[in-house]
Amino acid sequence: MENKIKVAVVDDQRLARMYVDLFVKSSTRYELAASIPYAEDALNWCRENKPDLVIMDVVMARGMDGLTAAAILKREMPQTKIILATSMAQPEWMAQAQAAGIDSFWYKEYSRLPLVEIMDRTVDGESVYADTPPQAMLGSLPTSELTDQQKRLLGYLTQGIPNKEIAERMRISPLTVKSHLEQLMEKTGIHSRTELAVKASRLGLLP
What we know:
Strand order of the largest sheet: 2-1-3-4-5
Helix content: 40-55%
Distance between the termini: 49 Å
Largest sheet: 5 strands, parallel
Radius of gyration: 19 Å
Number of strands: 7
Shape: elongated
């Protein structure tokens, strides 16, 4: 019997990782070589064990993010195929992954392609990317219409940072921060700072 393709799954969300683990285990083509919660640990493991395919989430709760780790891994081990994955509709991450030479990119919640097809095509030498990134909405406002300054402000908001400290970090006045937040709430139809922070966090808007 032909040797199975060795896969490492990297995701700090336990349930999400278990789902992919079970999928790989049930496959006739793939073998689960490792299930790892953090990117830095995965990087060290891959250096020693050299898997054929790595499926790695972008956002990690601590330490190095998946995009940074995948870029390092691709430079050091170009023969290893890498699929970066995320449940957040961030177009910047897909562009950064392409620039780093990552083989494929999977938007978990938005992709029309099943994971197995992305895995098969990636292992067979194809680079699988969406033609256009998914359109995420912050309330009634497409995130593509957010300015860099607004994204930065929202990122600080998701961390629970008060207006005065946000103002200091962005080098603007607290009144300007308040004005920006009011404009965002008006454009998005979101009526509280807390709800705005929660929804921005779900979309992965980080400073």
